[in-house]
């Protein structure tokens, strides 16, 4: 896979809007709209010479950044999961999953942030992609 397609910031905002609409206990609102664009630039172009290379690295970093940067008032972890899934879907992966471990990782992103070992998280994403998708 050489040409990777990415969701746009508008796509991610639309995912969040859907999450808010489907969950009555989720508060609407944006706290830091630039965080979404920044996360997407990092996974597609990188910063300071560091660029996630594989689709799994890109999905893991996108989820981490959206979960930890809190672009929205509420629903950040769910939006992070949805955006990572969209990235996979745009690139030929068809997810069919409900994995409690993914939710634990997203919770950990939000509470522990950069203390998590990204290499281990990327390996988890690779495993989930192999287990829960058809490429």
Q: Residue ranges: pLDDT <50 for 5 or more in a row?
A: none
The CATH C-level name is Mainly Alpha
N/C terminus separation: 11 Å
What Rg is obtained from the alpha carbons, in whole angstroms?
14 Å
CATH topology: Four Helix Bundle (Hemerythrin (Met), subunit A)
> Number of DSSP strands?
0
Order of helices and strands: HHHHHH
- Main beta-sheet strand count, sense and barrel state: none
Which percent bin holds the helix content? 55-70%
So how many helices?
Answer: 6
| Global structural class | mainly alpha
Broad shape: globular
CATH architectural arrangement: Up-down Bundle
Multimerization state: single chain
User: What is the mean predicted local confidence, pLDDT?
Assistant: 85
- Number of domains as seen in the coordinates: 1
Proportion of β residues? under 5%
CATH superfamily: Fic/DOC protein, Fido domain
Brief descriptors of the model:
single chain, 135 residues, mainly alpha, Four Helix Bundle (Hemerythrin (Met), subunit A), 6 helices, globular, kinase activity, Death on curing protein, Type_II_TA_Toxin, Fido-like_dom_sf
């Amino acid at each position: 896979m050489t040409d990777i397609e990415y969701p746009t910031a508008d796509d991610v905002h639309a995912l969040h809007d859907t999450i808010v609409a489907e969950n009555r206990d989720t508060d609407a609102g944006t706290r830091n709209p630039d965080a979404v664009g920044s996360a997407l630039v990092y996974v597609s172009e990188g910063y300071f010479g560091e660029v996630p290379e594989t689709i799994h690295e890109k999905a893991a970093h996108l989820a981490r950044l959206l979960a930890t940067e809190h672009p929205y008032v509420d629903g950040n972890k769910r939006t992070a999961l949805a955006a990572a899934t969209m990235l996979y879907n745009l690139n030929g992966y068809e997810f069919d999953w409900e994995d409690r471990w993914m939710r634990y990782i997203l919770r950990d992103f939000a509470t522990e942030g950069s203390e998590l070992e990204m290499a281990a998280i990327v390996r988890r994403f690779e495993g989930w992609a192999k287990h829960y998708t058809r490429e």
